[in-house]
Amino acid sequence: MELKEINDKKIWEEFSLLCSPNNFLQSWNWGEFNLSLERQIFRWGVYQNGKLQAVCLAIVQSTRLGQFLYIPRGPILSDWEHPEALDCFIVKLREIAKKSNWIFIKIEPPIGDFEHNREIFKFANFAPAVTFTQVEDAWLLDLTKSEEELLYDMRKTTRYLIRNEPKQGVTIEISDKIEDAKEFVEMLYSTSARKNFVNHPKEYYLKQFEILSRDNEMRIFKAIKEGKVLAMAMVSFYGEMACYLHGASIETDQSVGYSLQWAAITEAKKRGMKFYNFWGVVKDKHFYPGHPWYGFSLFKRGFGGFKYSYLRAQDLPLSPKYYLYRNAEKA
Is this model's pTM higher than 0.90 or not? Predict the structure, then answer.
């Protein structure tokens, strides 16, 4: 096996889209998005006898203690049951990282939190990270079911509101326009101020939408009543999964979020996707009224589906500075 840099979008995408699991955080365009933020990225592939076996998008991140290499929901392997390509990545990345004086490598694998998967990284001298960037507990909907089956599996209230909101005059529009992305960001900031959420800079969302929407990989969903936009959502579409990444709304007593999500779900089904990912929910032990994340977790769970727990982020220490970084994370 040998590690090579990949500079051809066609080669990258053809391989990634044929693999399972795959995700937009390892897509070619996610690399382009990070480049637009002036981040250093690497696109590597592992070849065996000339055949591509794995790809890995890696992003250089900075801390006060030094730089580290971050691999979001990757690498993408042709076969996780025989992860020899991962071993090749780890050996080569360790060599490259030491030459670059990176203090550690952080991998957030695209696989589940199972003993076998934990052993893969433990054997390679990784340690479970203190914190994580991507969600650990995601809420997924199986889109291979019919619309009737999906509706049947929902909470009664969720099913009722999906059907009732259009009767109350709520309509849904799907947009690829940057003007709607700008309106979404303003609404998102207003929502965050109201609910005490923390946002990225506005340019982060706009660049993300601008780049991913070009290849039909991201859309804005708008819930409208009497000409007024009441709620919006930013949804990515890549490979086998659609992801509900960001949502925003104005302060209103009108129920609008249910038909908005249903429109995104049915759009994902039309595209032939396997899963709709509602993104993060609160852990089961914290799922109770009064917890600050209970409300949106209940909303997502109400659509039916199941929880999928990703393997926690894994860190490979390369410098004594890593342990200072780890202690800072704990603090």
Answer: yes
